[in-house]
Amino acid sequence: MSALTVTGLGKSFGGVDAVAGISFELRSGELLALIGPNGAGKSTTFNMINGQLKADAGSIRLDGVELVGRKPREIWRLGVSRTFQIAETFSSLTVVENVQMSLLSQQRRLFAMWHPAADERRDEALALLDRVGMKAQADRPCSVLAYGDVKRVELAIAMANAPKLLLMDEPTAGMAPGERNALMALTKQLVVERGMAVLFTEHSMDVVFAYADRMIVLARGRLIAEGRPLEIRDHPKVQEVYFGT
Ligand code: ADP
Ligand code: MG
Q: Which of 12, 13, 167 should be mutated for ligand 1, with most atoms under 8 A from CB?
């Protein structure tokens, strides 16, 4: 069964269709790239999946459970994690505290962070940080980290939710090519290890071709092509709409 099943998903703003009834599926263990020019509807799609925006039409099912109509926090607890184009952490907290917060909030035990015994689940957080190569910096405040390292911490925070689905909005934006490949290679390993599904938007076609198992192409809110990266690259409609040739 597919991890994520999106059917007839739609959203309009002031009568204009930002997303005009799209359908796609995503299996566990799969990295699916969502691409398309600016204004195509990529962010709107992400925001509907994680509940920041309510869909006007259609359905979004995660392992058969309907997400439309649920609040972002509930969707997060059902196993949808998200990373942002500009990585977000609590910069006044340390690296390990950020991951502990995420572990505790999954259990609805956020208050435990301010409890005298706040080292709750520290070992588990350290294990996740080890996995993303950030254990050595566990006790540093996030505010002093290099940007590429913040992205790794953000990934550990997302993994602390034990996601079935990870949404990544331009994961490699603002990163140098070496860092980019390291982050995507790590993501790919995590997908295999944990059997989660990843949906990501990406401007760099190099990244898409290197790491996506499949891709879907949006233009003006419509899904115009779907397939393996090499099939899509030569698709005439995609050439026209996306690559401008
Ligand atoms: P992408 O992420 O692919 O660049 P978006 O999903 O951000 O595209 O936007 C799709 C379309 O919806 C665009 O035409 C955009 O102007 C419009 N749009 C997005 N969010 C809003 C909003 N909150 N209010 C009005 N229009 C919006
Ligand atoms: Mg966008």
A: 13
- Stated pTM of the model: 0.91
Is residue 201 in contact with ligand 1, taking CB distance under 6 Å?
Answer: no
Query: pLDDT of 118-161, one tens digit each?
Result: 677 899 999 999 999 999 999 999 999 998 899 999 999 999 99
Q: Is 37 inside a domain boundary? A: yes
Instruction: For residue 63, give the CATH number of its domain.
Output: 3.40.50.300
The domain tally of the chain equals 1
Identify whether 52 is part of a domain.
Answer: yes
Q: Which residues contact 244 (CB under 8 A, 6 or more apart)?
A: none
Q: What is the DSSP letter of 143?
A: G
Domain that residue 208 falls in: 1-79+163-172+199-245
Interval between CA 63 and ligand 2 midpoint (Å)? 26
Please tell me the residue having the least CA distance from ligand 1 atom 26. 13
Does residue 3 belong to any structural domain of this protein?
A: yes
pLDDT tens digits for 147-157?
889 999 999 99
Kindly identify the ligand whose nearest atom is closest to the C-alpha of 219.
Answer: 1
ipTM above 0.85, yes or no: yes
Q: Is 104 a member of any domain?
A: no
